[in-house]
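Journal club side-thread
Mid-discussion, someone asked how the predicted structure for our own chain would compare to the paper's figures. Pasting it here so we can look after the session.
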Amino acid sequence: MINRTWDDFLNREFQQPYFQQLSQFLKKEYAEKTIYPPKQEVFSAFYYTDLDKVRVVILGQDPYHEPRQACGLCFAVKPGVELPPSLVNIYKEIENEMEVPMNYRNGYLVRWARQGVLLLNTVLTVEEHRANSHKDKGWEIFTDHVIEKLNQLDQPIVFLLWGANARSKQALLDNPRHLILTSAHPSPLSVYRGFFGNGHFLKANQFLSEHGCAPIDWRM
């Protein structure tokens, strides 16, 4: 079930020709291959976070492509699943910035999502063992429209754009009410190229507090 605050937006998108083509592609993919996340979890980000309560947007690339990991929330994994390296690095950065201990046994980030952190990938599905396999199938149009919708909102929002795929959305953000923070991706391949030490979690909370919004409790 999708959160009701997203209904109008999503219903309009679902009727667009590009999304109809994407739906046909996904129907065939799910029927013939192993695709993540499970169909009922593809839109989890929109279920857990109200449109009118979004305070932070974390933008990833595409879902985890190994068994049991993807759950429809970027960087998150289902309960009981070992944390992937990118999420471990995110937790390390939070510990360093916020000086709070993180629970490395729990990577299910619903606690963040319910506080107004929209955990969105630029592409929402992937074939097993094949990262970026659903790139350029239509998801980028959809997530462009999500970002454009959020950009129009009056409520202050912090956009955390990590990695090249996420940073490509920056051109869609021109509302001066929002804060855009960019850095390298938290994956082991790039974490030392500017993710560690980026200060994004602290900066996000400072911005929210300065604009009369409750900061995010990043603890897990």
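Post-session note: Strands lie at 35-36, 56-60, 117-121, 126-127, 158-162, 179-183.
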